[in-house]
Amino acid sequence: MASYNHNSDGPINGLSELKQRYLYRALRPNEDFQQDLFCVAPHSKRTINQHIASGLTNPSRFISTTTDLECAIDWAATADQKTSEIYGNERTVIVKIDIKYLKKYYPNVYYEACDLTLQCNIDHYLTSEKQENYAAAYQEVLFVDWIPKGAVSVETILESVSESDTETGTETSSDSEDDSQDYDEYGYYSNECHYEYEDYY
């Protein structure tokens, strides 16, 4: 696959600055964790800034992931709420992506990724405060074109909550230890990563 031409006047390419081993992604219904994950538009000319601004309605070569599992869960809930035709399944699979595996077996994928947890990359690639805030809030890391299946495994599976269940207050999970926690209308814990935004992916 052709590489994405990152500029060389400031940003840090690749994932070498990440201190953790795993990244997380909420899969689209047409993605399979047992297969390679591919971008939606491999021939797109859209930039990183454009992907962050409207990646859901305008597909690009980039695949969004996050350093924070709770943010991936929040992504799934937000996308399902705003675009049920895409995230309308009864469940959403959250996968983890092994950075160490990529560095060893797919260094091109590792070094082409864009780590938007780094302020130097945010400053270089993003052109508005809205995009900057969104990328920072969700601790976003972008892959270009694809993610090899060998690096991908299931972290958790989220079950959606039906509208009738939420209206009647029906319990949807028996393993919740704290009844005082706040859950949104999709049954996902409302965490600090939540950031209202128009689009995702």
From TrEMBL:
InterPro entries: DUF7587 (IPR056009). Residues 160-185 are annotated as: Disordered. Residues 45-153 form the DUF7587 domain. Residues 162-185 have a biased composition (Acidic residues). This is DUF7587 domain-containing protein. It comes from Oopsacas minuta.
